[in-house]
Design a protein that fits this description.
The chain has about 450 residues and is of the alpha/beta class. The chain contains 21 helices and 10 strands. It is about 50% helix and about 10% strand. It starts with a helix and ends with a helix.
Length: about 450
Amino acid sequence: MSLVRRNIKRALDDRKLGRAVLNSCLLSTEKRDRLISELDFQSTRAAARLIRQRSLDENRPLLERFKESFEKAGGRLHYALTAEAACRIVVDILLKAGALQGVKAKSMVTEEIGLGQALHRAGIDAVESDLGEYIIQLAGERPSHITAPALHRSKESIGRLFADRLKIPYTDDPQQLTEIARSVLRRRYIDAEFGVSGANFLVAETGHVVVVENEGNGRLGASLPRIFVAVTGIEKVVGGLSDLAPLLALLARSATGQRATAYVNALLPAPDVSDAPDEFHLVLVDNGRRRTMADPDFAEMLLCIRCGACLNVCPVYRSVGGHAYGSVYPGPMGAVLSNLLGPRMMMHHELPFLSTLCGACKEVCPVDMDLPGMLLKLRERAPKPAIDRVAAAGWGWAMATPARMELAGRTVRTIGRAIGAMPAGSTVKTGMSFRGLSREASDK
Ligand code: SF4
C-alpha cells in the first residue's frame, strides 16, 4: 500500500480528526460565504485575476523593477533557484551576522523549502511565532492547512501538548492556552536576533514587501530583531500599491472570513532608522516556478494567493485533513502545486486522484483558477502502473481492426472457459475487462 493510501486509511479511521477538520472547514466556509456576498464577487475576482496574470506575464520586468526599488531603500535581494539554495542563503545570512536565535512567522514557502529543518541543522534556534505554527512546532508536526496549520488539533490535545512540553498544569481553556503561548513568545521576541517571514505580495513600483497576518507576530518579527529575512516565491510580485486592494479584499474574506486581516504590513527596508532592523533581506525562491510559468497547462496555478478556501470546501480534504496528502501543500491546490514545484514535475503523482472533480474549489477560488481542469491534466501525466500500460496497449492493438477485435474476443472467451469463469455460449465485449480504461468503456 502506498504512503498516501496508508495516510488516508489512518485519517479515515480517526474519528476525532475527521470531526475537527470537518467542523473547522464548515465554520470557515460559512464565514467566507457571508462576507463574500458583500462584494461583487465575480467582478472583484476578475480584477484580481488580471492583476495576478500580469504578475506572471510580466514577471521578469516586474521583478527587475521591484529589485531597483527595494535595493534603493536599502534592502538586499537574493535569488534562489532551488529549495536547498534558498535555505543555504538564509543560513549564511544568519551565521554571518552571528544571529543564532530568533522568531519565524508562518510561511508556506519556508515549509516548502524545509527552512525550519535547515536552521535546526545549522544550530540556529527559530521559534514559530504564529500560534498555530507554534503548536505544531511543539508537536513536531507539519501544518495540516495552509492558513490554519493546527486545524486538526482539538483544544484538549493542545492542552495536553502544552502541559507536556512546557511543564505547566493542564488546561484546555483556549483563552488560557493563548495567554500561555503569548507569554512564552513575548520573551522570545525581546531576545530575538533575527526575524524570518514569508511575504504575500511584493510591490514592484515601491519595493514594499507585504505581509498579511492576524496576530501581530509578523510585525514584531520584522521590526524588533536586528536582522530580518523575508522569503517568498518569484510569482508574488505585483505592479503597484493600488493592485493590492482587490487582492487583500478577497484574501481576507476567502481565508478567514474577515473583511480585512488585522495587520497588513507593507514593509520597506530602513537601515538608517534606529529602531528598524539593520539588515533587511529578501530571498526570492524559484524551485520550479519559472518552469511552471512556461507550461501553458499549469502556469495558472501560480495565480494562487494561498487563501485556503479550496481546502475548506473540498469533500476529500474535509474527510481526511491535510496530513493525509503527505505534501507541504494539501487539498485541491496542493494536489496541483505539489506536482509542479521542486526539482521535477509529478513528485506527488497520486494526489491529483484525491479529488471528486466536483468543482467546488473552482467556484470559491478568488482568482478563478481551473483546479479541476489542472487535476485532470495531471492525471493524464501521472505514471501509469505497468499492468495498466500493458492493458491499454493491448486494447489499442485489439481495437485497431475488426479482425483483431474478433480475434481478441475469441481469445478472451477461450481463456475464460479454460479457467471456468465463463460458461460456454456466453459472449464477451472485447476489452471490457481491462483495468485502467475509461469509466465509459469499462461500464458498457
Ligand atoms: S487555489 Fe484559489 S482557493 Fe485555493 S488557495 Fe489558491 S487562491 Fe485560494
